[in-house]
Specification:
about 120 residues; mainly beta; Thrombin, subunit H; two-stranded antiparallel sheet; 1 helix
């Protein structure tokens, strides 16, 4: 594997985990809330046609690819988490890949998400 090019990783993202405590609205319905676990610099890219076709086999909504450095074993990112972009756009995580299982780089396939569900 080649060395990681840091320059393209210029978008500061926040990785958010579902909150451990459940809150309820005035009707008694649970409110989904998230807690920011860490902020990292990432490369956020729309997927090309071929990548999009391959990702759609995973889940039909994946349309973005987010690449960032591995943060260590103490942070077990899962598809229940979400990504917050600087312009208050949310991305739901479809799949997370630890490239070559070398603990250097994560690549996430994601879809745009708004409060209340996917776009």
């Amino acid at each position: 594997m080649k060395s990681i090019q840091i320059g393209p990783h210029r978008t500061r993202i926040q990785l958010q985990q579902p909150a451990q405590t459940e809150t309820f609205d005035s009707f008694g319905q649970p409110i989904e809330s998230f807690t920011t676990i860490l902020s990292v610099f990432a490369k956020v890219m729309p997927m090309s046609g071929r990548e999009l076709e391959a990702a759609n086999q995973i889940k039909s909504q994946a349309n973005l690819k987010v690449e960032f450095r591995w943060m260590g074993t103490s942070i077990p990112i899962s598809s229940e988490w979400r990504i917050l972009l600087p312009n208050n756009r949310y991305l739901g995580i479809v799949n997370i890949n630890n490239i070559e299982e070398r603990n250097r780089l994560y690549v996430c396939y994601a879809y745009e998400w708004q409060q209340g569900g996917p776009v």
